[in-house]
């Protein structure tokens, strides 16, 4: 995958260029920059982003039950590698945590547990995830969760120039600089991605 600087260079040289001629991560950046935004009513996540002065663009889409990040990426024309899932998980003592993962990857819970010093990690049941986050599964944002939880981010996400992440409602992504996750959430980088 090209480095973020390479994407910026490509987009500078071919501002109206054909997206098909660009590397996939660059097409994702171009799509996020070009997608016409419709304003969606404020969520706790977007209220926090605005209060912190974080620039973001809104990308609503038609939500499909169990469609996941792959569906939103397809509908919005984003690279699924640049669409980030917010997963609510728990350790062996049922302490919740958030994992931010590429839309086209899954979490190796064994690798994650080893890296964070836990005996085991598993996904929370949907009703438990809803209770911890304050959001419905499928519309979970890592920003402004009901309960403060440690956040872990797949390290390669931080190398992208821009990501699409849930804005706190089903069928609603916001595009932001991934460094915002470190700055606002204290997200710690991990390497636990595996192919779907």
What can you tell me about this protein's structure?
The chain is an alpha/beta fold. Helices cover 31% and strands 23% of the residues. Strands 1, 2, 3, 5, 6, 7, 8 and 9 form an 8-stranded mixed sheet that branches. The chain has a two-stranded antiparallel ribbon with strand order 4-10. A hairpin with a 4-residue loop joins strand 2 and strand 3. Helix 1 (4-13) packs across helix 2 (24-34). The longest helix has 11 residues, at 24-34. The protein is globular and about 45 Å long. Residues 1-23 and 32-37 have low confidence and may be disordered.
Question: What are the key terms here?
Answer:
disordered N terminus; two-stranded antiparallel sheet; alpha/beta; 196 residues
The string of secondary-structure elements, in order, is: HHHEHEEEHEHEEEHEE
Structural class: alpha/beta
Question: Could you list the spans in which at least 5 consecutive residues all have pLDDT below 50?
Answer: 1-23, 32-37
Q: What is the mean pLDDT?
A: 85
Count of DSSP-assigned helices: 7
Number of strands: 10
Distance N to C terminus: 18 Å
**Backbone shape:** globular
**Helical percentage:** 25-40%
Major sheet size, sense and barrel closure: 8 strands, mixed
Strand content: 15-25%
Write the layout of secondary structure elements.
Layout: H1 4-13, H2 24-34, H3 44-51, E1 57-60, H4 68-76, E2 83-91, E3 96-102, E4 105-107, H5 109-116, E5 121-123, H6 126-133, E6 151-154, E7 163-166, E8 172-176, H7 179-185, E9 188-190, E10 193-195
Parallel strand pairs: 2-7, 3-6, 6-9
Antiparallel strand pairs: 1-8, 2-3, 2-5, 4-10, 7-8
Helix pairs in contact: 1-2
